[in-house]
Amino acid sequence: MSQGEQSETPGDESPILCARCLRLLKPGRGEFFVVQIEAVADPSPPDLDWYEEHNHDSTRRSYEELVEQLKDVSEQEAKDQVFRRLEISLCNDCFSTWFENPAGNRDGDDVDNREI
Ligand SMILES: [Zn+2]
Fold first, then answer.
1. What are the residues facing 32 on neighbouring strands?
2. pTM of the model
3. How many CB atoms lie within 10 A of CB 41?
4. Tens-of-pLDDT digits for all 116 residues of the chain?
5. Do residues 37 and 88 touch, judged by C-beta distance below 8 A?
6. What is the DSSP secondary structure assignment for residue 44, as one 8-state letter?
7. I need a surface site. Which of 11, 22, 84, 92 has the fewest CB within 10 A?
8. How many angstroms is it from 9 CA to the middle of ligand 1?
9. Measured in angstroms, how far is the CA atom of residue 33 from the centroid of ligand 1?
10. Number of continuous H segments (helices) and E segments (strands) in the chain
């Protein structure tokens, strides 16, 4: 067929693919969503009562060990343990499917309006 349009986007970086169905996504056409996921490890202050119950006298030592271990871990690795960031592209179809159940529950129904 016609091959006249193949040099339409020269110099483009790597193509954007849907993270789910691997469909090729073309920018500027409203064909996809960019999903930015930020995950932060439990940001609450430590539950000292719980630590006392579960670790007893080892709490202090394990904290010192943790500090010791962190000296060997690179700054980036340490950050990765508490903060993760991910960016994926999803075509419109995959996005609507994913958005209905972003946590991937096996039974996608009744999660939000579960009655006690
Ligand atoms: Zn897709």
1. 91
2. 0.58
3. 9
4. 444 444 444 555 789 999 999 999 999 999 999 999 999 998 898 888 888 888 655 556 666 777 777 777 777 777 777 899 999 999 999 999 999 999 988 764 555 555 55
5. yes
6. S
7. 11
8. 22
9. 10
10. 4, 4
The CA distance from 85 to 69, in Å, is 23
Are 39 and 79 in contact by the 8 Å Cβ rule? The answer is no
Amino acid at 47: D
In contact, 31 and 25? CB cutoff 8 Å: yes
Ligand 1 mean position to 14 CA, how many Å?
Answer: 17
Question: Ligand 1 centre from 109 Cα, in Å?
Answer: 22
Give the chain's length: 116
Which residues make beta-bridge pairs with 2? none
Beta strands in 1-116 (DSSP E): 16-17, 24-25, 32-40, 83-91
